[in-house]
Amino acid sequence: MHELPLVFFTVLAQASAGLLILSVIHQVISGKNASQSTLFKMGIAALVIVGIAGCSAILHLGRPFRAMNALFGAGRSPMSNEIISCAIYGGLLFVSLAVTYLRPQLKGLQLAARLLTAVAAVVLLILIPKVYTIETIPQWHTVFTPLQMVLAAFTAGGALALIWQPTRTNFLIMVIATIGSFLMTPSYMAHLSATAPAMLQKGMGFFDAKMALYCLALVMAVVSYKKKVLPMAACSGIVFILAELAGRIAFYDLWSIGM
């Protein structure tokens, strides 16, 4: 169970980043027609999710009060870069929400703050996988590691975005991310069979659970989009997060002792 806090941290941080990025894309596309109230609610949701992710990461530390030591590894330590980028993303997200709430008339400043936060979210999505592309762990040192983590941002984050913005763009991004994850799975399994067959065998239950939950979540997302049933969209987002958690447990078990 030692890696379980990292499971929640990585999945939730990526879901938050995906949700925020999609909200900003919608704002840029819609321009003045974008609902500031909706954008604010999505920002709050993204902040809460990344806040939970950050708390999960702290629980992984042997001595949580020494978390600030991560600053000393900035630039040379992938884990320090990951932690710092998450803190910057969360901080910018808070600032953008504060600007929206305190200065609702300053639309240009709000957009600039959200765009900067979206850039920080993209950086976070790039830096998290770099912690795990380790040459000495061949089952992790593969293109499938960053690919599955980036896709997670837009399966879970995309489904969550449909709660507030059931737009065609958000729906298509979520579907494409889900199909992309399905399509990479056979090649990913082949790679794991060649590099860590025993560990793969032990973790197949979690991989199978991920695929089954994907199917359920995708069906729920399609129904919610077609029928405009918002509670179904929320359920779809939750199930996608559960699917990514199952897959991430399997991912960590490829190196560590099984959870």
UniProtKB/TrEMBL annotation:
MF GO annotations: dimethyl sulfoxide reductase activity
Keyword hit for Transmembrane helix: yes
Pfam families: DmsC
InterPro entries to which the protein is assigned, alphabetical: DmsC (IPR007059)
One biological process term in Gene Ontology: anaerobic electron transport chain
Gene Ontology cellular-component annotations: dimethyl sulfoxide reductase complex; plasma membrane
Residue stretches spanning the membrane: 6-26, 38-62, 82-102, 111-132, 144-164, 171-191, 203-223, 230-251
Keyword annotations from UniProtKB, A to Z: Membrane, Transmembrane, Transmembrane helix
Protein name: Anaerobic dimethyl sulfoxide reductase chain C
